[in-house]
Amino acid sequence: MLTSKHAILTLGLLTAACAAPPSGVDSAGSDNAQLSAGGDVQCSGASAADNRIGVQTTNIARARAGLPRVQQNAVLARAAAEHACDMAKRGSMTHNGSSSSGPNARVKALGYRPMLVAENIAAGPYDVNQALSVWNASPKHRDNILRPQVRDFGIGHAIGSDGRTHFWAAVYGASH
Description:
By secondary structure, the protein is α+β, with helices and mostly antiparallel strands. The chain is 33% helix and 29% strand.
């Protein structure tokens, strides 16, 4: 069971939102749920189709709020894909990575120079459209989507060892 106030269970989809300040401190705390373990996971990388859908969905929400559009960012997509894979390998939905404290550290390690980084994560038997829909319906996740400073976006996906649990990570950012 998740212990963080930032995590919710909606229709069987576990989700969590994190906004990392530029200092690299991850506000996720103990957002952590064990979901699938053992066996092989499927790490597909950053899908161009998923990133297109993510940008379109994000820009629809942002346009309705009168905010500027985001653009696909290959570095953020890679960071999201690597984190989704890491969560799937560990069978755990968490903002903390195996080798990082959170999304800010992960994007910096890939060369992104963040002024702001936020991350939404999810795990369950759902596709990209369902994950994006749940994030848009959740106030904490929507806060990340609608951060006025955000300009860049990337989403990643992996399938857990049970073959049914889909791990999603979306990274929202603004760079120097």
